[in-house]
Design goal:
Chain lengths: 487, 484
């Protein structure tokens, strides 16, 4: 087994045993990135120099016996995280040359453990998209089939983990942007409860929905990375000051008495038969492992996508106002008047999907429409949240598909935004409810594309969700398959 | 013609709160620093930065709200006011919209006719200030607009009145009262020129008897009480002329030009922004417990109105003296400190209002800078009271005290200013003066009583001011009447 095939946990052992040094590990990954990135286009920035400096520092720390769980482990971050001294583009022309002066809290936390940042990952511009085709830096390809999308918006993150270009990645999930690409790339993606991980330094798309999450090869690594980034941060007023349990210690495999719900609204027309079969097979596996499977109802599910596209776009229209060409980012130098500078800089700097969402959101907040759209959507959001709270009175976790289909082909949905939006139908309700959920490998389609399973947990109960995911992973082999793309 | 119309004024005051740091980040709020030196990712609106509410700003907002009789909201919400301008880095201002921190309140003002009028306060809400645009004045920057974001994100409390004022004078009375309160409370430094206390005025006119309000114009950012008065008066006249001439007032925002004394249109209603307010998802609802409100209430100082009443009713000052002394918190504290030491409130008030205020004015300083502490001043008053020095001599001692900060006793001692109260010594001076001025004596005896002042002056002069003037007066009268 080559170095880049090892998980975080396996690398940890080898670094601690001195079988490998952090510099060796980092070099292996940098070489892997160099070899595979032309095909996949996963990275926007590769940290060829800084990564080795960080690796040397990690080796020194290991030699000195100062080892944290992530010391020396190669991690990549979606290009939405501010990283001091590195470009942070958000895959947008408007921030193409923007270098951040500060680290996002999640980055600062993994850096504090002396993790090695190997690069910044491609994504849909400003995290708006479900296919990673909305990037100013070009589409990302799915390692399982280079003609297919990796999902989005954290498409680069999920694809890089599937292709073993980094041991783990940080993504963000506003409507499924960690879980859906993880499903399409056959890796593990976790969206923590809103407030569990600080949003400070994460370029905002929709503030009330955005959440940082780990993308890893297996559930143990997911727990390991979540452990490092979770917890209260005084710089984010919406982060929640509640204890962070030991996630790894709770991966016991024990499912005794566990009640798993299957929400009937998630098994509807449009759900691919292979995906349906995979979820049903997973339910059978859980039953065999001792869990009780119960059919439940989330009655307001069908309103979730509409509700999301009002709230998320409304917030985005305001969040993206700061890209005005005044202080940083792209500025149209030919503009004669202030208004022209604004309009031309933004017209040139933003891609089509970003503009579409800014317009939708501006409309939803406009005088005369606010009550009918924004306020109504907030009321619907409350109902959706209540659906989940009611269901969690009866069950511990929910088992659902992540996306209605496996990864679709590049270009297949780019002309039909509504079809594209519907690919997040199973992930969006979780963001609206604010609870936690994760995607884990659950099988393959007849075409050989990965299929993800979604587990949805109670608010701030990532522990139970991880334990449930881990038990399934122990009982199956799906997560061990790797894509065999041509290099 | 003017008499047929009633003026209706509502005021919006922006008071900059005196926190050391900004409302949503840790940067300093100090005025006048190098441009953009007091900035960070949050107030520069760098990608990914998030606001965190300054609790001190909330405390100051509660403090102000309580002093102007507002309901403090147990739960209030920050909202985004969206518009583009280069001094507004996020492209939105964090403000409060539907649920402000302070609900309905009121302020009583005193009118010229001696009556009191209650002005309603609609609300007071917290928000962040914008930065400043500077026009380039060096060869490299000429023709450019430069952005200074030092002021961006400093905390403001916007206090909105009801349209309860009916004249420029009422508006000024309200503003002065509000200004006095925020300065007293130490929540705002009250500096109009630096923009710490800014006023927008909503003005309309309507025929007397009409219930419906006329169309209003909003006058923006006027930076002195005098200009506010001028601007309102100009605007009222303009609107009346317009209506009388068959025209219509249009709803618009107008700017006052202090050079011409006129207002001109800045933007009309059709150009008004749609601010697209919505709750800021980056900030959680602001929850204020009853305990917190009571904690703040307990720290409120005695306000000017209460002080005035106490000065009149308990200390026996005139309404005018009480007004002057209570107007400034430090002056009032100084006065209270003197009264605590001297008991005789009346003479404390006289000295402060006379000599102290005169010297402060001459030296262009405030009571905080006075070299004459309450202990020094009351020490001087004690020497007048026990006849060690005359009231007149006290003025000389006061001057020296102001210069060198010594006590009255030290100065009297050193300068030998102790009043002469020895009857024999005074008597011989009186005799000399009478002997030296026979003509005046004759005139005095002839009925010109006023000349007594002339004799007193001569004796005082001869004593180098040290003779007790009362004794001099008494002895003079006795000797002159005695005809010797």
């Amino acid at each position: 087994m080559t170095i880049y095939d090892l998980t975080l946990a396996e690398l940890r052992t080898k670094l601690d045993n001195r079988e490998l040094s952090a510099v060796e590990v980092t070099n292996a990954y940098l070489e892997r990135i160099a070899a595979t990135n032309p095909d996949l286009n996963t990275f926007i920035t590769v940290c060829n120099e800084t990564a080795l400096v960080e690796a040397q520092a990690a080796d020194q720390a290991i030699a000195a016996g100062e080892v944290a769980p992530l010391t020396g482990l190669p991690i990549a971050a979606k290009d939405i995280f501010n990283t001091a001294g590195l470009r942070t583009t958000c895959a947008s022309r408007i921030l193409e040359n923007y270098v951040s002066p500060y680290d996002a809290t999640a980055i600062a936390r993994i850096k504090a453990q002396k993790a090695v940042i190997v690069g910044k990952l491609n994504m849909d511009e400003f995290a708006m998209g479900s296919s990673n085709e909305n990037s100013a830096f070009g589409a990302v390809r799915n390692p399982w089939n280079l003609e297919h999308v990796p999902g989005g918006s954290s498409g680069g993150s999920a694809a890089s983990i599937a292709a073993h270009q980094a041991a783990a990645a940080l993504g963000t999930d506003t409507g499924g942007s960690v879980r859906q690409p993880a499903a399409h790339c056959g890796v593990v993606g976790l969206k923590p409860t809103y407030g569990r991980v600080s949003r400070y330094g994460v370029v905002a798309y929709a503030s009330s929905l955005d959440q940082v999450g780990p993308i890893t090869r297996d559930v143990r690594d997911s727990a390991l990375l979540l452990q490092a980034i979770a917890g209260y941060d005084s710089a984010d007023s919406t982060s929640v000051d509640t204890p962070v349990p030991d996630y790894q210690a709770n991966l016991t495999g024990d499912l005794k008495g566990m009640k798993i719900g299957l929400p009937k609204e998630y098994f509807i027309e449009g759900l691919d038969k292979d995906v349906r079969a995979a979820v049903e097979a997973a339910a059978a596996t859980y039953k065999a492992l001792g869990a009780e499977i119960i059919e439940v109802s989330l009655p307001h599910t069908s309103y979730a996508v509409a509700c999301y596209y009002l709230i998320a776009t409304a917030e985005a229209s305001s969040n993206l106002a700061r890209y005005d060409g005044v202080r940083y980012g792209l500025r149209d130098e030919n503009a004669e008047k202030l208004i022209d500078m604004y309009m031309q800089s933004r017209a040139t700097g933003f891609g089509a999907e970003v503009k579409r969402r800014i317009m939708l959101g501006t409309y939803a907040l406009s005088s005369g429409y606010y009550d009918a759209y924004y306020i109504k959507a907030q009321k619907v959001r409350t109902l959706i949240r209540q659906d989940f709270l009611d269901v969690f009175e009866k069950v511990d976790t929910l088992l659902t598909p992540v996306a209605p289909t496996p990864a679709f082909a590049l270009g297949e949905k780019t002309d039909d935004p509504l079809q594209m939006y519907l690919s997040d139908i199973y992930t969006i309700p979780v963001n609206l409810a604010g609870t936690c959920a994760m995607s884990l490998p659950g099988g393959f389609s007849t075409q050989g594309l990965p299929i993800g399973l979604q587990l949805i947990g109670k608010p701030f109960d990532e522990v139970t969700m991880l334990r449930t995911a881990h038990a399934f992973e122990q009982a199956t082999e799906w997560h061990k398959r790797t894509p065999n793309f041509k290099v | 013609m003017t008499q047929r119309y009633e003026t209706v004024i509502g005021l919006e005051v922006h008071a900059q709160l005196t926190t050391k740091t900004k409302i949503f980040c840790g940067c300093s709020t100090e005025f006048g620093q190098t441009p953009n030196s007091q900035t960070c990712p949050v107030c520069l609106a760098l990608p990914g930065a998030l606001p965190v509410l300054n609790q001190k700003a909330v405390e100051l907002a509660i403090r102000t709200g309580l002093a102007i009789n507002c309901q403090i909201a147990p739960r209030s919400i920050f909202a985004r006011k969206n518009y583009f301008y280069p001094d507004l880095p996020k492209g939105y201002q964090i403000s409060q919209f539907e649920l402000p921190v302070c609900g309905h309140g009121w302020l009583d003002i005193d009118l010229e006719n001696g009556e009191r009028k209650r002005i309603g306060i609609t609300r007071a809400h917290m928000e962040e200030d914008a930065g400043k645009l500077v026009h380039g004045d060096t060869p490299e920057t000429s023709g450019n607009s430069l952005v200074d974001l030092n002021r961006a994100c400093t905390p403001l409390l916007e206090i909105v009145s009801e349209p309860d004022m009916r004249s420029a004078n009422e508006a000024i009375a309200y503003l002065k009262k509000l200004h006095q309160i925020v300065v007293y409370l130490d929540v705002c430094d009250g500096n109009l020129e630096e923009g710490s206390f800014r006023c927008d005025a909503n003005i309309s006119v309507r025929p007397y008897g009409q219930e419906e309000l006329g169309t209003r114009a909003e006058l923006k950012n006027i930076n002195s009480f005098r200009f506010i008065k001028q601007a309102i008066e100009y605007e009222v006249e303009r609107q009346i002329d317009l209506i009388e001439g068959g025209g219509k007032v249009v709803q618009e925002t107008r700017l006052f030009d202090s050079n011409t004394g006129m207002t001109r249109s800045m933007r009309g209603k059709e150009d008004a922004h749609d601010y697209r307010y919505f709750p800021d998802p980056d900030l959680v609802p602001l929850v204020i417990s009853p305990e917190w409100i009571e904690e703040v209430r307990a720290t409120l100082p005695e306000l000017p109105e209460a002080k005035r009443t106490r000065f009149v009713e308990e200390l026996g000052l005139t309404a005018y003296d009480a007004e002057v002394l209570a107007a400034d918190r430090e002056l009032a504290d100084y006065f209270d400190a003197c009264v605590a030491l001297a008991k005789d409130a009346k003479s404390c008030a006289n000295w402060i209002m006379g000599d102290i205020l005169r010297k402060l004015k001459e030296t262009d300083s405030t009571i905080a800078d006075t070299p004459v502490s309450p202990a020094l001043l009351t020490g001087l008053l004690a020497r007048i009271a026990d006849n060690t020095i005359s009231g007149k001599m006290a003025k000389t001692v006061f001057e020296k005290m102001w210069q060198n900060g010594q006590t009255a006793d030290q100065i009297i001692d050193k300068e030998g200013l102790k009043q002469v109260t020895d009857t024999g010594a005074i008597e011989s001076l009186v005799d000399e003066v009478i002997a030296a001025n026979p003509n005046q004596v004759a005139e005095y005896l002839g009925g010109k009583d006023k000349l007594i002042g002339f004799f007193v002056g001569k004796v005082m002069q001869a004593s180098q001011g040290k003779a007790n003037p009362g004794m001099v007066n008494q002895l003079l009268k006795k000797k002159l009447q005695g005809g010797s």
